[in-house]
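Data availability (excerpt). The following record was deposited with the supplementary files.
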Amino acid sequence: MQPFAEGWRRLEAFLTSGIAGSEFTPLRLLTVLVLVTVLVWVTRRVTRWLIEHVLARRGFDIGMREGLGAIVRYVVISLGALVILQAAGIDLTSLNVLVGAIGVGLGFGLQNITSNFFSGLILLFERPIRIGDRVEISGCVGEVKEIAARATTLVTDENVAIIVPNSQFVSERVTNWSRPGTLTAYIVPFFVSHESDPERVQQVLLAAASQHRNVLQNPAPEVEFVEAGMGALRFHLQVWSTEHLKTSGTLKSDLNFEVWRQLAAAGVTISPVHRVLPAGVPLAQRSST
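Predicted structure:
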């Protein structure tokens, strides 16, 4: 019993003795760590309840809800941490030197992390991209699933998650296929032989487009006779749809099948020359490719 009491007195003395001669004891440090952990956990639960119940019932879209929830979480954690430190008896004015040293460290060693954090705040405030948007950046195409403090998560059509640093969305060129709306133009190129009648080809392309259930008639499909090249006559079929934002390949495949069938029935020969062009660029910008 005596060794146990002696060990307890030593532990008590250690926990209540000041660190480096200050009034801040290991017991206070442990208390601060526990309270901060509880603060983070409670804040996460409360903001999730705020996003899924309060803001959802008021009609906010998912991007706005996630953005407001993240801002509330950051503010509450920051203020709560200050209150916890003050309640623990820590003189915050004495931390000026430490804060200055941390600032220097952020400016050098943590420059990328700091840049990503503030870029995340810019994304939340300006909202150039939102949760659920389909975007393309650095050759990656996917749906925005999460905008966190450091990075944004995209999920591709193959159900693969891609983690993109927030700073890339601020400093690089980003294509947002969901803005300003889901109405999107899709362009499918076709090459036919020189013996083909251009007007007949135009009729076949428009007929094939009008028969697809997800191709809009307003705006109406368009056919452009791009050029009479050395190898073939090149046509572009442009259609509009609101249903194939995530499956543009399916729409193009359906059109290719139907156009091929109708051209064969009309006696038009498909040229072996075939080039696949990316969708989303106006016809006038593609005629030189």
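Summary of structural features: The chain has a mean pLDDT of 78.
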